Amino acid sequence: MTSPAYPITEKKQNQTIWRFLLKELKPSGKWLTPFNIISIPIILVGLALIVIRFTHGLGAVSNVTQEVPWGLWKGFNVVTGVAFAGGAYVLTFIVYILKVDKFHSIVRVTVLNGFLAYLFYTGALVLDLGKPWNIFNPVIGNNYGVSSVLFLVAWHFILYILGLLIEFSPAVAEWLGAKRAHKILSGMTIGAVIFGITLSVLHQSGLGALFLMAKEKIHPLWYSEFIPILFLVSSVFAGLSMIIFEGSISQQVFSDQIDEKSRTRRKEMLQILSRICGCSMFIYLFLQLLVFIHGQRGSYINSSMGYWFLVEMVGFVLVPMVLFILSYRKPNILLIRIAAIMTIIGIILNRLNVSIIAFRWDAAVRYVPSWMEIVISITIILIQIWIFRWIINRMPVFKGSPSWAKHKND
Amino acid sequence: MSINRRDFFKALGATGMTIIGLNAAGSPGSNSDDDTEFYGILYDSSICIGCRACEKACAETHGLPEPEDEMEAGVQRKTSVTQRCTVNAFDTEEGEVYVRNQCMHCNEPACATACLTQAMYKTKEGPVIWREEKCMGCRYCMVSCPFDVPKFEYESANPIIQKCDMCYDRIKEGELPVCVETCGDALYFGTRRELIAEARRRIAEWPEMYIDSIYGEHTVGGTGYLYLSPVPHNELGFDIKLQKESYPSLTKSFLYSVPAVDVLVPSLLLGLHAATKNKQNKTENHD
User: Fold this and answer.
1) pLDDT: is A99 or A27 the higher one?
2) Which residues of chain B make contact with A205, given a CB cutoff of 8 A?
3) B127 by DSSP, 3-state: which?
């Protein structure tokens, strides 16, 4: 680990900045870690497959069909990934709007996670586009399809990425030692947070609303006019469970950067997060129950899709909810972690069910992702983790801000 | 270089029309704001002899390979990236009945509403067309279309969406769609109003030949293609469970809530922020 260096504050010459950046681009620490040994070959294969995808068309690597046009990249990387990135808006709400200062130490890492997630899942979206060179049409072109839910989601995505970048930018300024920029960017945080929460509410629900017109195609147990609300509510505990899960890994991997104070606080934070998870899961289950009764779905339960629905709802929503609630009284870190992992599995199941598994459940030829699609999906996530690690090792995310930057962030 | 008055007004008019056109195009769901009537095609299953001349003519006109697969009763030949239309045979109590299969050209198409670049577009003449230079290949139209009509070229690095466009270029020239021109009597071209009147006339005149129902009159808010049939439509592979309301109506309430959320949520957050601000100054929590 290199100690934080801030050479440009003294001399603001271009040369020094470049030298500094070049130095920072080099990897720090050991090369041959188990994670690297596993991830590098996968990433190389994935990148090769991406080249094939662009030279030979989607069909060369992907199994998507005319009936099921959206496969793993949209269903998993975009629809599922965005739910997990929801932690950023929930946490910024807690810290900046409700001013619960306990969580200040994890807000940066969560925002960084959210930012990278959105960036890379937008990348997955571009991979999936048949004509990605026309992607600017709905952005700058004169072809606004304003009646499209996807148009709305796309715009909210783009703006939210900018918002997250602004929220994270003070850390970049601290890394570069840019004091003036830091002051300006920190002042923009609260605006970006308010903007970001609004955008999140709309695109989290918007991702569900995408499927509203697939009425006859999604199994009635998963389709309802309330998909947008269900997606929004579930994004709360999806994001928080991801924070719990990701935090328990980061604590070990980046243990040298986390000081004692935040370590002891972590237990308290986990407890509060698990309470919010428990409550929001209760709301979610209650909504699901209402939809179930209102839609008279009882007759669908005694079928293979019905059992699958019960697995999702009971096994991966009700059970982790109970675990979260059990940990109210007696804080049990292990219990909370297990509950978080189960919740994460439940969210993956739910999003994949809506977008892939229950989508055209009655089709003669079912869509099953090819190994190449899976490798590309994983590649996207692995590159994201690499960049995450690169940033964590350089910018003040876990480690404290430099002394000149303290007491300034709101 | 000088611009005379006439040219100036022409340019002004064109600009104005573009703006109006943009606004009108912004809501493909509303067809009532202009007086033009949509053209459509009436297909009569009771007359069709299943010769498939329309399939061949369609392929030829649009530069697609001639369809060679055999038609077989009970086997649904789907449209594909090389076939914009198919004719299928069904065994019924009235004998073998044929059904033509292509884009339905809905009055309020789900695909055009789904499209975020207006590449899928409901023209004022009635055909739903696909415009290559606008499409970004997201395939949301395919997710949304209740009839699974748009077909995507997965094997191409520069893919297109293949679907029937009701020979839009020919209609603009005042010609009939090539399938209608090729067909003897089973296909009938006209405005939707004329088609429904004609269909009703046929049902009233030869009640023994038809069931008293026109598929497409109300399904998904009405379609440009209308079907007459001697047997109930569900026996001919039609999805009769599709809702009567248009598909865009499914996303309407969500889209309407967007401006409200965009205004109300930030206001609420600002209020909360202001309310919690004082507390923080008092506690002086440095972190």
Assistant:
1) A99
2) 254
3) coil
Closest by CA position to B141, among listed B167, B168, B166, B159: B159
Torsion angles phi and psi, residue B225, rounded to 5: -90, 130
Per-residue pLDDT, averaged over A70-89, amounts to 95
Could you tell me the pLDDT band of residue B7, with boundaries at 50, 70 and 90? low
Strand ranges in A140-185 using DSSP code E only, listed in sequence order: none
The answer to whether B116 and A131 have CB atoms below 8 angstroms apart is no
pLDDT digits (tens, 9 = 90+) for A55-69: 999 999 999 999 999
Determine whether the interchain pair B22/A105 forms a contact, defined as Cβ–Cβ distance below 8 Å.
no
What's the CATH class of domain A34-405?
Answer: mainly alpha
Question: Closest Cα of chain A to B74: distance in Å?
Answer: 15
> Confidence class of residue A176 from pLDDT cuts 50, 70 and 90?
confident
Taking the domains of chain A in order of start, what are their residue ranges? 34-405
Q: Is the Cβ pair B28, A66 closer than 8 Å?
A: no
Q: How far, in whole angstroms, is CA A64 from its chain's centroid?
A: 24
Q: Hey, where are the domains in chain B?
A: 20-248
Give B20-248's CATH code, choosing from 3.40.50.150, 3.30.450.40, 3.30.70.20, 3.90.1170.40.
3.30.70.20
Query: What does the pLDDT read at residue A72?
Result: 95
Confidence of residue B15 (pLDDT cuts 50, 70, 90): very low
The C-alpha atoms of residue B36 and residue A370 are separated, in whole angstroms, by: 48
Question: How close is the nearest chain B Cα to the Cα of A34, in Å?
Answer: 35
Determine whether the interchain pair B255/A149 forms a contact, defined as Cβ–Cβ distance below 8 Å. Answer: yes
The interface predicted TM-score of the complex, written ipTM, equals: 0.88
Q: For residue B43, what are the β-bridge partners?
A: B187, B227
- Residue of B80, B110, B258 with shortest CB distance to A213: B110
Question: Which residues of chain B does A55 touch, with a Cβ-Cβ cutoff of 8 Å?
Answer: 157
With an 8 Å Cβ cutoff, are B115 and A148 in contact? yes
Contact residues on chain A for B21, CB-CB shorter than 8 A: none
Confidence at B20, pLDDT banded by 50, 70, 90:
very low
Mutation for testing the B interface, residue in A148, A223, A360, A399 having most B CBs under 10 Å: A148
Residue B162 corresponds to which tokens in the numbers above? 């293949």
Shortest CB distance from A135 goes to which of B118, B136, B155?
Answer: B136
